[in-house]
Amino acid sequence: xxxxxxxxxxxxxxxxxxxxxxxxxxxxxxxxxxxxxxxxxxxxxxxxxxxxxxxxxxxxxxxxxxxxxxxxxxxxxxxxxxxxxxxxxxxxxxxxxxxxxxxxxxxxxxxxxxxxxxxxxxxxxxxxxxxxxxxxxxxxxxxxxxxxxxxxxxxxxxxxxxxxxxxxxxxxxxxxxxxxxxxxxxxxxxxxxxxxxxxxxxxxxxxxxxxxxxxxxxx
Length: 219
Known about the structure:
Helix content: 55-70%
Largest sheet: none
Number of domains: 2
Number of helices: 11
CATH topology of the largest domain: Tetracycline Repressor, domain 2
Radius of gyration: 23 Å
CATH architecture of the largest domain: Orthogonal Bundle
Distance between the termini: 73 Å
Shape: elongated
Strand content: under 5%
Order of helices and strands: HHHHHHHHHHH
C-alpha cells in the first residue's frame, strides 16, 4: 500500500492508512477535524478527502484506530509464538500487547468520547470486537455458549485493565501487569468453582434418559 498514491486508495484503505496517524495527533489535539486534517496532510491527501473516510467523525476515527491495534497485536504475537504458552498467559500477553501499541493520551481522549451516553452502544461493540480478536489470536475456536461468555468476561477484564493502564506510571507497567494477573486469577477461580458446582447429569433427572428406559427397560 505504500506505493499507492492517496487518490487511488479505497475508503477502507484510507481509513487503515490514516488511523494510526490520526492517533498520533489526537494525543495533542484530540479526536478532532484538525487531527484528521494533519494526518491527511502527512500522506499528501487533498483537503477534505480524509473526512470522507470518517463520516461518523471522532467515533469512526477511534473505531479505525482500534481495528489497527487489533491487526498490529496479531502481528506482534503470531500463533507460533503463542502456541507454547498456557491459555491464561496467551490472554495476558495479548492484553498487554494491545495496551503497549496504544498511545496512552490518545486512548484517554478516546475513552472520554466513548463514555458519552450516545456512544455507549458503539463502545460496547468495540469492546466485544477487541475481546473477540484476542480470543481468536489465542486460538479459541469455541462455537457454543462458551464463545459468548469468554468474550464477555474478557471484555470486562480488558476494560478494567485499560483504566489502570492510562494512569500507570510504574516501571515497565508493573502496576498494570499485576492488576491484570489478579483479574485473570479471579476469573480462573470462578471457572473452577463453576465447574465443581455444575450438576452431574448422571445424578439428576433426564427426560431423554427416562424415555429411553421406558422404551428399553433394564433387565
